[in-house]
């Protein structure tokens, strides 16, 4: 096959067009169609080659050395006469050659093309051999190195523990090379060869068999029951010969062909070659065969291209007409063949209706190599034009035409070519000019209707980035005799009642357990720091669960904590600035400062609950919260008692006058805080909090938390805090109606109502949540209760200080107090007591 440019056309060169396909297997016509598809794809894609299109000529080698040389000389001559080194002025410029299917064809071609430095991209699995490789002209193969194929066969045998095998190969140089390479590798790995059978090296090898006796003698490997695995160097001649031998052997033994039970392991050259005899031959004899194959991928565009192809589309295409007649076993009415078939071709038959032995819709490995070869040439040309365009950017673009490109210029570009093809694969050549890839492992599944399926079950890829060059999926290999399918990972076996032990049901693993292998009798528990995945076939590491500074909940908590702290500091600044005003002096302004500082610390202590817990934060969290909140509530209680004592001291003959002042408030504040401090000291000295990991509460996460050490001490702290809040609320509620403009008992009542409501709801919420949400509940309770105290007590005072300064005067407050006649003159005295306390 030859790539020409710049025009695209298809033209057979043989004078007798009929014979072009008469000796060619109809299935190999896909090679031609993959070439046509690739050229069309490139010519339609304007981004690949601007203003340049590719064309091609097609030659048939007939597997004949003389014909190969003759056709190669035609490439180097004008189109009608074989005159080497002479080219017509209007002759199309040949850029590269693609071919051939066997290594002999490639060798014959490269010896002539190498003289003119014309690049050849072959798709033969075996490279041409020469004693001196330095004499071999530049040669490229769109297939991997065959050494990987030998390694793949050995690894496949070792995987299934097959150590007693036979080898079938052709009686030629390629067969000798196959034996000399493979047998030492087998012996090195402890694999013995039970037999080594050589097959005559000819496509029509059956003609070399003179009698049925010689066939039985040659077919001894078919009757050898000790050898169940046969490795076949599966060239076309080998498989044709093998097929004939099995047919004759079955006929002589009066058995069915399918009764020949062998495991066939074939090389990448093998394909169901689709001789006409395959219409009658039962291909199920090859069911379950394993083969190394050139990697191919599904190109949806190629499938669509074949589905719409029919013979009426191109009436002048003799290739397609001849293929159509052979594939569908029919004849066109105007056919010039000597033997007309009984069935008439309509030209509208569908290729996807043909069995796979005659034609495949999915792209085969050889066709995929041709497809990649065309794209490699196109990408090399694209690089050449891009380079020229940069150096000659100021010249007219029309001067960059194809005749300026010489074939030898492509060599350096082909060596470094790397691109992504239309099927999504990355294609590149290594330093030896071979495809940098490995081989697929194919399991051949055949069906009674002569169709088959290629099932990829593994690969031998030395270029893999995952470090495992050989992989195989036994589950994808269809079993031939089993009571039931294997139990996949994630399931366990359960014996069927009344059935043999090899028959079982597959039941899913229960929650919390997995099975990571096929056919496991029991599922097992994951380690504590791991959890089962959804399929219950693997244990995954649990994620740490704690309230982080980087997540939304943590960010919101930090924002509210800092913003509330800033507001508290702002209120403290306002009160310090207006410290000599009546509203600040009332109810002991030192207590007010202490209360604001404690509220500021309450807001900030919420930050200790955010982030990954450690020993320090676990010590400080609850202790800081308990002591700071005790101080805040104690200041409220002290201020409330101050209001009550100040009112009682106004009564005639009252002995409470001696308690009016700062002494009582300080005693209440220090005494109440001291009790909470002692509780916390006992807690720290006996069972202090510590960092802990809870692996059981949440299935997929590890809760990183602070263990309270003693839950009893934790609730003692909360209980004492609730006790202080209850007393403050009760006293403030009783003193809420005392007549005085400075009396904040009413505001304290509301603030303590909010405080108690928040912490009463905290307990059930704390007990019903897990992980970081438990911490979030406590942070919310701290911020909400602190905000309730700040808002209810200080918001009205800030309103008067900032917006109504006229109300913040002794005269105005005295005037309001005088109007409360129900209490006589005690309110004025109470006011004086509050201002002096």
Automatic annotation (TrEMBL):
Coiled coil: none annotated. It is a multi-pass membrane protein. Keywords: Cell membrane, G-protein coupled receptor, Glycoprotein, Membrane, Receptor, Signal, Transducer, Transmembrane, Transmembrane helix. The keyword Cell membrane applies. It is found in: Cell membrane. One of its GO terms (cellular component) is plasma membrane. The chain crosses the membrane at residues 94-116, 552-576, 591-611, 623-647, 659-684, 712-735, 747-767, 779-802. Belongs to the G-protein coupled receptor 3 family. This is G-protein coupled receptors family 3 profile domain-containing protein. It comes from Podarcis muralis.
């Amino acid at each position: 096959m030859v790539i020409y440019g710049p025009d695209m056309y298809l033209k057979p060169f043989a004078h007798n067009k009929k014979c072009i396909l008469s000796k060619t297997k109809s299935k190999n016509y896909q090679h031609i169609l993959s070439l046509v598809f690739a050229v069309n794809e490139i010519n339609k894609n304007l981004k690949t080659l601007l203003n340049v299109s590719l064309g091609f000529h097609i030659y048939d080698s007939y597997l004949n050395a003389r014909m190969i040389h003759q056709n190669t000389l035609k490439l180097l001559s004008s189109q009608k006469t074989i005159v080497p080194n002479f080219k017509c002025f209007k002759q199309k410029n040949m850029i590269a050659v693609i071919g051939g299917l066997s290594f002999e064809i490639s060798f014959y071609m490269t010896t002539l093309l190498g003289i003119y430095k014309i690049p050849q991209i072959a798709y033969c699995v075996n490279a041409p051999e020469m004693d001196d490789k330095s004499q071999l002209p530049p040669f490229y193969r769109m297939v991997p190195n065959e050494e990987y194929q030998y390694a793949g066969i050995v690894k496949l045998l070792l995987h299934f523990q097959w150590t007693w095998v036979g080898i079938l190969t052709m009686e030629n140089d390629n067969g000798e090379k196959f034996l000399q390479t493979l047998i030492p590798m087998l012996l090195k790995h402890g694999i013995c060869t039970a037999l080594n059978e050589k097959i005559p090296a000819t496509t029509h090898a059956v003609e070399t068999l003179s009698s049925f006796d010689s066939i039985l003698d040659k077919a001894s490997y078919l009757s050898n029951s000790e050898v169940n695995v046969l490795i076949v160097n599966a060239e076309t001649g080998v498989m044709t010969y093998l097929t004939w031998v099995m047919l004759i052997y079955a006929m002589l033994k009066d058995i069915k062909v399918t009764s020949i039970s062998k495991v066939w392991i074939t090389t990448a050259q093998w394909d169901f070659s689709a001789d006409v005899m395959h219409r009658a031959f039962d291909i199920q004899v090859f069911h379950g065969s394993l083969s190394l194959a050139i990697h191919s991928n599904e190109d949806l565009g190629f499938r669509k291209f074949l589905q719409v192809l029919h013979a009426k589309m191109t009436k002048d295409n003799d290739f397609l007409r001849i293929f159509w007649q052979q594939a569908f076993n029919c004849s066109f009415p105007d056919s010039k063949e000597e033997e007309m078939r009984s069935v008439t071709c309509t030209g509208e038959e569908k290729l996807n209706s043909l069995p796979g032995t005659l034609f495949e819709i999915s792209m085969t490995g050889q066709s995929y190599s041709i497809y990649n070869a065309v794209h490699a040439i196109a990408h090399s040309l694209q690089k050449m034009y891009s380079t020229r365009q940069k150096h000659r950017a100021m010249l007219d673009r029309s001067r960059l035409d194809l005749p300026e490109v010489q074939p030898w210029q492509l060599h350096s570009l082909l060596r470094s070519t790397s691109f992504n093809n239309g099927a999504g694969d990355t294609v590149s050549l290594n330093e030896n000019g071979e495809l940098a890839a490995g081989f697929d492992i194919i399991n051949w599944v055949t069906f009674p209707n002569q169709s088959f399926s290629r099932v990829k079950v593994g690969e031998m890829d030395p270029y893999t980035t995952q470090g495992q060059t050989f992989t195989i999926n036994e589950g994808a290999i269809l079993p031939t005799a089993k009571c039931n399918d294997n139990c996949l990972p994630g399931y366990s076996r359960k014996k069927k009642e009344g059935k043999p032990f090899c028959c079982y049901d597959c039941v899913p693993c229960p929650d919390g357990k997995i099975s990571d292998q096929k056919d496991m009798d029991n599922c097992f528990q994951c380690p504590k720091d791991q959890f089962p995945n959804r399929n219950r076939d693997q244990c995954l590491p649990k994620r740490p669960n704690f309230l982080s500074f980087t997540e939304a909940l943590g960010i919101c908590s930090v924002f509210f904590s800092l913003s509330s702290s800033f507001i508290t500091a702002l209120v403290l600044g306002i009160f310090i600035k207006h410290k000599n005003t009546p509203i600040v002096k009332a109810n002991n302004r030192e207590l007010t400062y202490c209360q604001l500082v404690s509220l500021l610390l309450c807001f900030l202590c919420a930050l200790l609950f955010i982030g990954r817990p450690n020993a320090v934060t676990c010590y400080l969290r609850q202790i800081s919260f308990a002591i700071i909140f005790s101080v805040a509530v104690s200041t409220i209680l002290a201020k409330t008692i101050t209001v009550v004592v100040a009112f009682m001291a106004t009564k005639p003959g009252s002995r409470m006058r001696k308690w009016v002042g700062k002494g009582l408030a300080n005693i209440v504040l220090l005494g109440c805080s001291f009790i909470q401090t002692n509780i916390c000291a006992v807690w720290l000295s006996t069972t202090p909090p510590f960092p802990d990991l809870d692996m059981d509460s949440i299935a997929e996460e590890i809760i990183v938390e602070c263990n309270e050490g003693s839950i009893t001490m934790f609730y003692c702290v909360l209980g004492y805090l609730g006790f202080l809040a209850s007393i403050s609320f009760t006293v403030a509620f009783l003193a809420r109606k005392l007549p005085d403009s400075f009396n904040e008992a009413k505001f304290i009542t509301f603030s303590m109502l909010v405080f108690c409501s928040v912490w009463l709801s905290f307990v059930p919420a704390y007990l019903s949540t897990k992980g970081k949400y438990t911490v979030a509940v406590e942070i919310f309770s701290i911020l909400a209760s602190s905000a309730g105290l700040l808002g209810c007590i200080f918001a009205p005072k800030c309103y008067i200080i900032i917006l109504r300064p006229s109300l913040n005067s002794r005269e105005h407050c005295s005037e309001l107090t005088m109007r409360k006649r129900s209490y006589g003159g005690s309110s004025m005295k109470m006011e004086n007591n509050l201002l002096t306390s």
